[in-house]
Each structure stands twice: as C-alpha cells, then as structure tokens.
Amino acid sequence: MASNPERRAALVDAGIEVLAREGARGLTFRAVDAEAGVPVGTASNYFAGRDDLLRQIDARVHARLAPDPQVLEGLMRAPKDRALVTALMHDLIGRIARDRTGYLALLELRLEATRRPALRESYTKSVRSQLEYGMEFHREAGLPGGDTTVVVLYLAMLGLMVELTTLPGVLDGVLAGAPVPDGLVARIVTAVVPEG
C-alpha cells in the first residue's frame, strides 16, 4: 500500500464526491482516480479494496462534518439553556449545508451498509459512537434534558437533515411561521428540549 498521506486524503475526498454523486455502485477505483485527477490505478495502490475505501470515507466525512472547535468554544460561553441547544442545532445544520456532498455521502454509506455486513458493522459503530459522544457532551455541558432528550433530538434533526439535503421542497411552507430551516430547528428544539 502506498503511504503518501496527502494523496490518500485527496483520494478519500474524491471518493466522497463520487459516492455522493453516483452512489455506491458508481464508487469504483477508476472513478475515484478520475475525480482526483490522478493516473488510473492510483487508488488501488492506496486502499486494500472497496470496503477499505468505504471505511476511510466514513472516517473522513465525519471529520469534515465535525464542529469547528473555535465555534463550539464560542457557543459554549452562553448560558446552558434551550437557546444554547438551538444555537448548537443551527451550527449543525450550517455544517451540513456547507458540506452537502459530505452528508449525501453519509446517506449513501447508510444505504450501502444495508447490503454489506462488514460495512454495516463498522458504520453502526461509527454512528453509535457519534450519538454516544453527543449524549456525553450534553451531560457534561449541563444542557437541559438528559439522554432521552439527546436521542429524540438526534432522531428529529436526522429527519430534518435528510429532507434538507435530498428533498428540501417538502418542507417549504409546511408549518406557518416556521421558515426552513431556522424555524423548523426552533420548533424541534422547543418540542424536545425542556426549558431549564
């Protein structure tokens, strides 16, 4: 296996683009090479196989969509209340909007995991660790509500993020006085997160 870390990262990012645009069936080493603008056969020198590429895409896209530590630090200076949870959810939606391709790749990974047991196992661990991190973060930050609040918020925001990245028109005007996405984020947080 080739070990140039910059080239590997560029190939994984190219894989994210291909996966988001073409789906799992279009994710071939040849397509990744073309997207990255490298000679044919380059990707096969960096990944043991398609499953290896998919696992590395999973890790990379989660890193791309992670909160910016400086933004998070600034947000966490606010009082630990429902308004802060709303601000955190707005940050999440903003990150998804800025890297729609990354989020679409995650959705494709989710679908591909239904067909590939090895990917299902690794992807389930990846997503579960993100959920558990969110629960721990919520507890340690002293935000209102408990683990149930975080899980319900996760499920509601997941639905919103899927709609925004795949069929945004579904939500346009669906609730009077709740513009997309800000008004819907506020409604979700109000419905799920206790006040104090």
TrEMBL record:
Gene3D superfamilies listed in its UniProt record: Tetracycline Repressor, domain 2
Domain of life: Bacteria
InterPro entries named among the record's database cross-references: Homeodomain-like_sf (IPR009057), HTH-type_TetR-like_transc_reg (IPR050109), HTH_TetR (IPR001647), TetR_C_31 (IPR041583)
One Pfam family here: TetR_C_31
Record keywords, A-Z: DNA-binding
Ranges annotated as DNA-binding: 28-47
Protein name stated in the entry: TetR family transcriptional regulator
Organism per entry: Streptomyces pharetrae CZA14
